[in-house]
Model the fold of this input.
Amino acid sequence: MSKAVALEVSQTVEAGPVKKRDLHLGDRVFFWILRGVATSVILLLAALTLYLFRLSIPAFQTFGAKFLISLEWNPVSEVFGAGPFIYGTVVSSLLALCISVPVSLGVSLFLNELAPKKLADTMGFLVEMLAAIPSVVYGLWGIFVLAPWLRTTVQPLLGKTFGFIPLFQGPPFGVGMLAAGLVLAIMITPTISAICKEVFRAIPDHQREASLALGATRWEMIHMSVIQTARSGILGAVILGLGRAMGETMAVTMVIGNRAEIDISLFAPAQTMASVIANEYAEASSQIHLSSLAAVGLSLFVVSLLINAMARFVVHRVDSRSAKAAH
Amino acid sequence: MKNVMFKLPTLALAAVLWVAAANAADLINGAGATFPYPLYSKWFSDYQKIDRSIQINYQSIGSGGGIRQLIDRTVDFGASDAPMTDEQIQKAKDPVVHVPMVLGAVVVTYNVPGVKAQLKMTPDIVADLFLGKIQKWDDARITKLNPGVAIPKDHPVMVVHRSDGSGTTAIFSDYLSKVSAEWKEKVGTGTALKWPTGLGAKGNEGVTGTVKSTPGTVGYVEYLFAETNQLSMAELKNASGNFVKPNVKSVSQSAKGSLKQIPEDFRVSITNAQGKESYPISGFTYILVYKTLSADKGKKLVSFLKWAVQDGQKTAETLFYAPLPTELVKKIEKKIADIQFK
Done:
């Protein structure tokens, strides 16, 4: 990391002042306009954070840091705690990752390493099309197709076979944590597989040729020179997918069952940070209710920010590594 | 080709000018409840045919949002399914007038396999279903009340409620709090609740979708929605002891039955109303305006309100909203006449 930063800094030092001196007036104006635009984005982010923070002050004053772990969310008696929502967001996103990561890896490996080019182009396009479907459509599909199927087929089967594990106990509702995880998994698969594909493509061919020349089978070649090399790139893709899963609102709200409780069973209804805000903000009228929703938003914002920062860090490392590999 | 390129900008300019001219009409902005939105948009377009100098722009952002925007004075009128609380009125600083526009109702809908007939329910059955205390559809109280209906043996009950904050939930929970002491103590009244049991679905359409696709469910939706989607609706026992089907007439009756209890400012809940034919889960939907309005826009808004509580009521019925009883309309007109202009 420190090397990368140093590299970046030295580049700006080189590129900045030296060129600036011989700028024409038009170039200067252009420079300032662009700088203004770029700064405004940062200002917007700062303003947003500040606003959210100001809105959520009453909630933190009333409930303290306990707000983040308290399990009670009762708009009538005005007792608020974000525990169930943080749990819901984290578990539904992790569940989505558990399902989506193996699939995405398979898809991107197949497209990049195994499939003939024509097939790979068509399939790649179709997978990316999944990302273009609006989330409300996923939600509707979840309610009318996925949830009934889960209720009548999948959940009874899971209950019968793995019912001794607490994760698969309880009555089959169809909608609930499992449905939310599945819908999210489908939604983040195009994101993860597209990035993985790019990461794999960045690996120079001679690396593959080298392992094949050493007598590796195709699987050993993929294992040694593709997956091993791309490890941190894959991690970056996963983290971006996770970020998308955590922020997803509409589709999750429609299939998760919206219950502010923590239940270990995946069949049980739950609720996420994004979905409780979408659900209750429009009709919330008391100051403390609004403030608590804002505090939930702030928590989500902070968590997403952390994840984005992590993703940047990881992607950066991959970049500098593959650059090194190319030299 | 050149001709077209010349014509296009001219046409565009003409269009802009035309739109600008049309906008010369006074623009009145309102925001609030989603429930009356279909009716309001019909009213606004009907009324524009009568008075061309007024154009009403309404955003259905929810009752809570409507009240917030009224308090912030970003709109000329707010709309809400629930009257403003004392706390909200204090925040508004200047006096606010509540004008009831029509009545709405909430129905109990269900999906019991094999049951096509309309089920009868008493208030305590409804409360215990939603409290999670009645867990099987063939509960003795339900079968006793509905002889001759083939209710499946041992079928579990699943409650479906609104996950989003909503006026529908407010009216429904207000009713349950009136008829069940246990509900009042454990759950209470509000646009969003901590539900003792069940699944949350988003919007009337979410509840409808879940109930329709899941056997054994019971939920609640707006009457308008249940009627247009042909859902099964329970017949409820009202305060006078009669079983009443939800329809436009029985909902209007609930306002008539509570006429004596309606206070000067119309801020009242009329759930569990007296009267033989009153449907028990009904409520007003209001337009909220400040008591002192600006002279230009205010006068036009007031004449619209007068029109809505009179001629507008006929339109209401065709869209499955229950019209205000005539006795009440007189009172409301008096209240509208009190609005002042500065």
